[in-house]
Amino acid sequence: MSAPPSPTFNNVSPLPAHPLAARSLAAVWHPCTQMARAAVVPPLPMARGEGPWLFDVEGRRYFDANSSWWVNLFGHSDPGIHQAIKDQLDRLPHVMLAGCTHEPAVTLAEKLSVLTQGALGHTFFASDGASAVEIALKMSFHSWKNRGQPQKKEFICLRNGYHGETIGALAVTDVAIFRDAYEPLLMQAHWVTSPDSRQAGSELKALADLRQTLNQRQDHVAAVILEPLVQCAAGMVMHSPDYLRGVRALCDEFEVHLIADEIAVGCGRTGTFFAWEQTHQAGENKRWPDFITLSKGISGGTLPLSLVLSTETVFQSFWSDEVARGFLHSHSYTGNPLACAAANAVLDRFAQADVVAQNQVQAQHLANALGPLAHDARVQHWRQRGMVVAFDVTGQHERFAERFHLAARQHELLIRPIGQTVYVMPPYLIDADIAQFLFEGLNATLNEVVHD
């Protein structure tokens, strides 16, 4: 099979393709990629990973500034996680979780329950983030149906929110490039204002908009779904814990579920293991969402795994002798023992090494080193939440994300801006020297791509 012809775009000749990249273009349909454009800018062929570094087939190294789509927590080829997978591989690679169970899945569910102080004590397993969102949406609707309220089948979501690209998840996603082509296939959700910290007063406006929508549709809404603290795919749009506390109060008042999509922001990214924990205040009862979805970092960037955590109330609504009242969703690899073993190793690392405290130190290294970018005339809205740092580049720059990505490679950085938002979400291996390296690479790339 030969590669497709390489057209030119805007009189730009194709970059030379390594033989592995050429084979990939001929055989692999790459995700989140216009393949005609990939013929001009071929995929970078990787050979191995070590710590925060990735190495291409020609031996060049790149700092994995985006954690390989936000999944890699402790660096590539982490010995502890790999050993846990190898040990499990020798015992039990897989068994169906319908009618069977196994130690890694049970242990993982128990550990996650403890992390929520038992508030979300039931774990449903899946394979990827979008699947977890589908499960949470279905579970919310079915729970209300089992409780005699089948009319509660609508969902409220935030402008700029992203929850995945399967049909149900896409229906509650507001990123046009992913959604628009499939609009005719999607159920209709209710969109409310995003609490975008870049806009003054946005959180109060967002809460008022949510209240108005709930007041109008209370009897028909099953759940509100949101990404706590950071709307990632929209360009790292951030908001405060106060907004989340307001949403929780409104969901309680209007008797609808709250789904916290922590697929990207969980596992320590924002400064606590669950982003939602930052809503908890001393001396107050800790209120949790009705559902939390997890994926990406939970297996440390090794194996596909996602989870839906739910409350006792939700769980009990399915408890019945009637099969049809049960939650009959399934995946062939649900609760795969290898993936669960990796996740258990990740949670053990958090417990034994006090990763959250270490991340707070690493986040400060990033703030110290990257902070000067906030005063660059080409930069606006410099922002940080834990191990996530982002800024927007001013002006209009054709193919900015692609050009920035390519230029950054020359400075040993693997980074993918979102539109004109540059962000870093690195593995948890940051010291002062690495943070300074990141600043120098970002600054040099910015100088090459944005001249005015």
Q: Give the CATH level 1 class of the largest domain.
A: Alpha Beta
What structural class do the secondary elements suggest?
alpha/beta
What percent of residues adopt helix (DSSP H or I)? 25-40%
Count of alpha/pi helices: 15
In spatial order, strands of the major sheet run 4-12-11-10-7-5-6
- Distance N terminus to C terminus? 45 Å
**β-strand amount:** 15-25%
Summed up, the domain count is: 2
Main pleated-sheet profile: 7 strands, mixed
Number of strands: 16
**The CATH topology of the largest domain, please?**
Aspartate Aminotransferase, domain 2
CATH superfamily of the largest domain: Type I PLP-dependent aspartate aminotransferase-like (Major domain)
Radius of gyration: 22 Å
Give a written overview of the molecule.
The strands form 4 sheets. A 7-stranded mixed β-sheet has the order 4-12-11-10-7-5-6, sandwiched between helices. Strands 1-2-3-15 form a 4-stranded mixed β-sheet. The chain has 2 domains: 44-77 and 355-449, Aspartate Aminotransferase, domain 1 (Alpha-Beta Complex); 79-353, Aspartate Aminotransferase, domain 2 (3-Layer(aba) Sandwich), CATH 3.40.640. It is 37% helix and 15% strand. The protein is of the alpha/beta class and 452 residues long. The chain is globular. Residues 1-11 have low confidence and may be disordered. The chain has 15 helices and 16 strands. It has helices at 19-27, 35-38, 67-70, 79-91, 103-115, 129-146, 167-171, 176-179, 202-217, 241-254, 312-316, 337-353, 355-370, 400-409, 432-449, and strands at 46-50, 53-56, 61-64, 122-126, 154-158, 190-192, 221-226, 230-231, 237-238, 257-261, 291-294, 306-310, 379-385, 388-393, 413-414, 421-424. It starts with 18 loop residues before the first helix and ends with a helix. Strand 2 and strand 3 (61-64) form a beta hairpin. Helix 5 (103-115) packs parallel to helix 12 (337-353), helix 9 packs parallel to helix 10 and helix 14 (400-409) packs across helix 15 (432-449).
